[in-house]
Design goal:
The complex is a heterodimer of chains A (1035) and B (92). Chain A has 1035 residues and is of the alpha+beta class. Chain A has 19 helices and 60 strands. In chain A, the strands form 15 sheets. In chain A, strands 9, 10, 11, 12, 13, 14 and 28 form a seven-stranded mixed beta sheet that branches. In chain A, helix 7 crosses helix 9 and helix 12 packs across helix 17. Chain A is elongated and about 115 Å long. By secondary structure, chain B is mostly beta strands. Chain B has a four-stranded antiparallel beta sheet, with no helix packed on it. A two-stranded antiparallel sheet of chain B has the order 1-2. In chain B, a hairpin with a 3-residue loop joins strand 1 and strand 2. The longest helix of chain B has 9 residues. The two termini of chain B are 26 Å apart. Classes of the chains: A alpha+beta (1035), B mainly beta (92). The complex binds zinc ion. The site of zinc ion (ZN) has 7 residues of chain B, from loops.
């Protein structure tokens, strides 16, 4: 084993040092780890996982079953193919036995993903792929060429490399080198992984994404994925020194490596002759060519003999012999000394991607291989991948007959032998899929790239069906293993999932609030003071709310504007109770059920005008409720004249709770009559609070006197600061949960689970008897829904007043399961612990499985007479604290501005935005028309958004979204990191608009002359801003 | 990743859509007139054909409009797109 003095596309002027299994070696730029190991005479690169047998480098590419190594430096990476790992200085790797080792620390590298669109995607830049790419380029098409190898410029002398001057020169061509297409999905959607910096080793720039996932939507796909050589099963065919013949030729020409000194060639076809001749010319001794065909192709045989190579026609290699590596080869009864045995059992077109496209495969008897048939997608296959191998083949030979098949290896990674396959077929298995599961053949890291066809042929042989008749296992994506890091892309750490925050978030964080995730929202959980644990903080917050005054940020509640002449009728159909009878100026609590009668959501409806309601939803269900309303309106009740608009982020909401709340509100809202008679329970008022226009609702989710103050979220922080200036205790979601549970108010999704009716919650009063129908009504009389033994909401008081029942705990009546705990807390007001539970049947006491006993009570444990909700009859108002600061308007991304090469990002704050619903089109679909300072943006067939000061009639949503302007020549490139739309200027020119996804948020995207305006909901703005800056790291 | 043709916005990636199950399952005219079994059929029973299936989709991350498609469940090929309230197109 040595280097050829001239051949190979390696840079001999530079030496790279690397370590394998603790020993240092040298290689050159252009080497793979495998070629450098072979050049250094390293033959053993692994130990088989089951039998512990030595294994050597078997191939030169992605089909490699043996040379699966562990990279240790620069960062631990398990199960990497030495045959495709480009060598770099400082590489440290070691051999494996089956399994690698995951890093015990987070991967410091960056990973990302990009969307791309093209007319033609060419997969593979070999001769056939290059020709197809050139043809496509000549038509002016948008072309993407993806090839697993390094860029053409790095391999100008490479054997079989495409002409570097003819490829990738089209004006709309993108060449993706080191990029493997790993999946082919519906509608010509292909996923590729680009390895961008791993080949740079320790010199990889930390700012560059190490790997990039390309999500490509192609109008047409050309697969030029080549062919993999097939092995033949014979005794000892797993010894180091046994190699696929074509791979040896690749090592010679691409890397200048002679993978042995004296070789025997074992072939069924012409292709191995070229290998033998090239190796002989390069100085390697070819001991013989054993050709399974009785009559080898005359011209090849003549050329071999002319080169002094003995051709053994009709002869088979029966055994590779050696201790740890090949030392001799048995051909028939002749034993030929050799350190290399080159095998060619024919070639399999690489049909993986074609099969994934939905394409059928056909067994070609001449090739003994599967070739592409028909695909439902726009794809064509060229070159060897289509079966055009360009050389003569013979009768396929799968295995060499023997008495003992226990050393005829089929799957080298799984140590599956021909004997194992016979055992499976002998046990009666006739399907390849079953044999795969029985033997594990084809289930390893390489997914059977070299073993799949062989397994199938063995099954066909054993079961007596025609070759190809046994079928094949499914070619599933990914074609090659893909790291989780690449799949995660930039959706890691803080960007893992959008974090939605309210306008008050920074205040909460600065005051040391601990946060709770509610859906994607981050809500203050509690605000511990120095030395307080959670229990102490929550007890203090609860006490403040029940005895003094406390406030909570309730901005996350979903809010939906429901407008139109039929709004009342619409809500009557959705809610279980009557909403049409609600007076303007009043508020009503309501429950929505699905048609099956199960509780879906609850909240309040505020009647703003005859034809205008504002409804609130639970925090986690806002989007689902809006979808639900649209579904019924659009698909069942299109005759109802109603529109629904989300205004969740338009409003900041502060819940002001406690006997002292009236005084605080009176102080902050001098123009508002706050007395009991002037502002009754379940009504709302328009006023100014702390100098900010506000809608104040007198509702209570705690049983105490309470208000919800709603202001434009631009002024939310000013309102909150004014409230806090009045010695009001901030409280979080935990206290909110305790207060409502003490009153027996259920939380949808906590005390209900999708099998809970309003009656189960003891809320018969909310189910209208008057309405002829509403969603859920019919189900209440279904036999199962009306069953008397359904679980119903009850209260529980543990016998031990300190015992806290675990939420979710099963409750037993004697030894029978009676229900489960849904909510459980310590209570300041009750001076003890308590719980809510869903329980079937009537019981006085229930126990948990661990034996904690609790008495069953009413679910309303605090103030069952509702004496506290209206506050004191007369109260001594606290002396006014003397005014408040002038309100300050704040935007969600205040100060967001960044500049990169060819790219500028900045918030465009405080744009006036109005959601307009009309049957008269304002702009054509998909367009945004600017008239003076106001842009009218198409959102849907009857929906527009006006952005700018121009007057429009509709719902004010100015604070619902903020805007980010992305300008500069690379604005499109940045958006392509997270937007699947084709933003090519021909497709999405200035004046186009779309509602779509950017990263993991919904946006309204408007193309402008110098870039884009992105409208994003205020709660997602911080996430999207952070995401954009992260995506711009490479700019 | 299916490319689903929204009748209003054009073809978009599947992730922008919300699946709505079988189309043409109308809310009964008078639920109170139905037997438990008839009501149960409306609530819980849906087709699951191998082949053409008329189903509902909502462009939830886009224009928020509901529409119907006829999709071949074997190939995922979408053969027709039509609006709610329109009859199912006849597939040859
Ligand atoms: Zn749409």
């Amino acid at each position: 084993m040595s280097r050829h003095p001239e051949l190979g596309n390696i840079d001999r002027s530079r030496t790279l040092r690397f370590v394998f299994d603790g020993r240092e070696y040298h290689g050159h730029p252009g080497d793979t780890l495998a070629s450098a190991l072979l050049a250094n005479g390293v033959r053993r690169v692994g130990t088989s996982t089951l039998l512990g047998r030595p294994r050597g480098i078997f191939s030169a590419g992605a089909e490699e079953p043996n040379a699966v190594v562990q990279i240790e430096e620069p960062f631990p990476e398990p199960m990497v193919l030495a045959t495709t790992t480009e060598l770099y200085d400082g590489l440290v790797a070691r051999s494996l036995s089956g399994r690698g080792r995951l890093a015990d620390r987070p991967d410091p590298c960056r990973y990302d993903a990009v969307h791309a669109h093209c007319d033609v995607l060419v997969v593979g830049a070999g001769p056939a792929g290059a020709a197809a790419a050139r043809a496509a380029e000549s038509t002016g098409a948008r072309v993407i060429i993806a090839d697993s190898g390094p860029p053409a410029a790095d391999r100008t002398r490479a054997y079989s490399a495409p002409d570097p001057h003819g490829l990738g020169t089209g004006p709309q061509t993108r060449v993706l080198a080191r990029t493997t297409v790993v999946g082919y999905y519906d509608d010509n959607y292909l996923v590729a992984v680009e390895r961008r910096t791993a080949h740079l080793g320790l010199d990889a720039p930390p700012d560059l994404a190490r790997e990039r996932v390309w999500r490509i939507r192609a109008k047409r796909v050309v697969l030029a994925t080549g062919a993999h050589e097939r092995p033949i099963a014979f005794a000892g065919n797993d010894l180091p020194g046994v190699m696929l013949a074509g791979s040896a030729r690749t090592y010679l020409h691409r890397y200048g490596v002679l993978p042995g000194h004296r070789a025997v060639v074992f072939t069924t076809n012409d292709s191995a002759y070229a290998t033998a001749l090239d190796l002989a010319a390069a100085g390697l001794t070819i001991a013989a060519i054993a050709d399974s065909r009785p009559e080898p192709a005359q011209d090849w045989a003549d050329r071999a003999r002319a080169a002094g190579i003995e051709v053994l026609a009709g002869q088979l290699v029966t055994e590779a012999r050696g201790d740890g590596e090949v030392a001799s080869v048995l051909v028939g009864t002749r034993e030929l000394p050799a350190d290399l045995l080159l095998v060619s059992g024919g070639w399999n077109p690489v049909v993986h991607l074609f099969s994934q496209s939905g394409g059928t495969l056909r067994y070609d008897e001449r090739l003994g291989a599967l070739v592409p048939g028909e695909s439902p997608q726009a794809v064509e296959v060229v070159g060897a991948a289509g079966g055009d191998l360009g050389h003569g083949s013979g009768e396929p030979l799968w295995f060499v007959p023997a008495g003992d098949y226990s050393r005829h290896f089929v799957d080298l990674q799984r140590d599956v032998t021909v004997a194992d396959v016979w055992r499976a077929t002998g046990a009666g298995l006739t399907s390849v899929e079953h044999v795969k599961r029985y033997t594990t053949a084809g289930t390893a890291h390489d997914q059977g790239k070299t073993s799949g066809a062989l397994t199938s042929a063995l099954v066909a042989h054993a079961t007596g069906v025609a070759p190809g008749g046994a079928g094949v296992t499914t070619f599933r994506a990914p074609y090659l293993p893909v790291s989780f890091a690449a799949l995660a892309g930039r959706d890691r750490g803080a960007l893992h999932d959008p974090v939605r925050i309210t306008a008050l978030h920074d205040w909460h964080a600065a005051r040391g609030a601990l946060f709770e995730n509610v859906g994607q929202w981050r809500r203050p959980w509690y605000y511990p003071r120095a030395g307080e644990d959670m229990a102490a903080a929550v007890l203090r917050e609860c006490r403040a709310a029940r005895e003094h005054v406390a406030a909570m940020d309730a901005s996350t509640l979903g809010k939906i504007d429901v407008i139109g002449p039929d709004a009342a009728e619409f809500l009557d159909r959705l809610y279980t109770n009557l909403m049409s009878s609600l007076a303007v100026g009043s508020i009503r609590y309501g429950v929505m059920c699905r048609p099956d009668g199960m509780v879906f959501d609850d909240g309040t409806a505020i009647r703003l005008a005859e034809d205008h309601y504002l409804i609130t939803t639970t925090t986690g269900n806002a989007a689902a409720v809006l979808d639900w309303m649209e579904e019924w309106l659009q698909t069942e009740w299109p005759d109802l004249r109603v529109t629904c608009t989300s205004v969740t982020e338009q409003w900041a909401t502060v819940a002001l709770v406690g006997p002292g709340s009236r005084a605080v509100l009176g102080d902050l809202a001098p123009g508002l009559a706050v007395d009991r008679a002037g502002f009754p329970f379940m009504t709302w008022r328009e006023t100014e609070v702390a100098g900010i226009p506000a809608r104040v609702c007198r509702i209570s989710f705690s049983g105490e006197l309470a208000y919800e103050i709603n202001v434009s979220s631009w002024y939310g922080l000013s309102l909150w600061e004014a409230v806090m200036s009045r010695d009001v205790t901030p409280y979080g979601t935990e206290t909110m949960h305790v207060l409502r549970a003490e009153k027996g108010y259920p939380i949808v999704g906590q005390d209900t689970d999708g099998t809970t009716t309003p009656q189960d919650l003891g809320m018969e009063w909310i189910v209208s008897k008057k309405k002829p129908d509403f969603l859920g009504k019919r189900s209440f009389t279904r036999r199962d829904t009306a069953r008397p033994d359904r679980r119903r909401l009850v209260g529980l008081l543990p016998r031990d007043p300190e015992a806290l029942l675990p939420e979710g705990a099963a409750l037993l009546a004697g030894d029978r399961m009676a229900g489960h705990v849904t909510s459980s807390y310590p209570s300041a007001a009750l001076g003890r612990t308590f719980a809510l539970a869903l329980v079937s049947g009537t019981h006085t006491t229930l126990t948990t499985r661990s034996g904690v006993a609790a008495d069953v009570t009413s679910s309303v444990l605090y103030d069952p007479g509702n004496t506290r909700r209206d506050g004191a009859e007369t109260e001594t108002a606290a002396p006014p604290a003397g005014g408040f600061e002038a309100p300050v308007r704040r935007s969600p991304l205040a100060g967001f501005e960044a500049e990169f090469d060819g790219l500028r990002l900045a918030e465009a704050p405080f744009l006036t935005q109005v959601n307009v619903r009309t049957g008269t089109p304002l702009t054509p679909p998909g367009t945004a028309v600017t008239d003076g300072e106001t842009t009218t943006v198409w959102l849907g067939p009857d929906e527009w958004l006006t952005v700018g000061p121009g007057a429009a009639r509709g719902v004010d949503v100015s604070a619902q979204r903020t805007a980010i302007r992305i300008t500069g020549p690379r604005a499109r490139d940045l958006l392509a990191h997270g937007c699947a739309l084709d933003l090519h200027p021909d497709v999405f020119p200035p004046g186009r608009c779309a509602q779509t996804l950017l990263a993991r948020t919904q946006i309204i995207l408007i193309a402008e002359s110098d870039g884009f305006l992105v409208l994003v909901r205020a709660s997602f703005a911080a996430y999207l801003g952070a995401w954009l800056l992260d995506a711009a790291t490479e700019f | 990743m299916l490319l689903i043709p929204c009748p209003w916005c054009g073809a978009r990636d599947e992730v922008e859509f919300h699946y709505g199950g079988q189309a043409h399952v109308a809310y009964p005219e008078d639920p109170s007139a139905l037997s438990d079994e008839q009501w149960g059929r409306y609530l819980f029973f849906r087709e699951n054909p191998e082949g053409d299936f008329a189903e509902r989709w909502s462009h939830s991350a886009g224009c928020r409009r509901w529409f119907n498609v006829v999709r071949d469940t074997r190939s995922n090929r979408i053969k027709h797109v039509y609006l709610p309230g329109e009859p199912r197109p006849v597939t040859p």
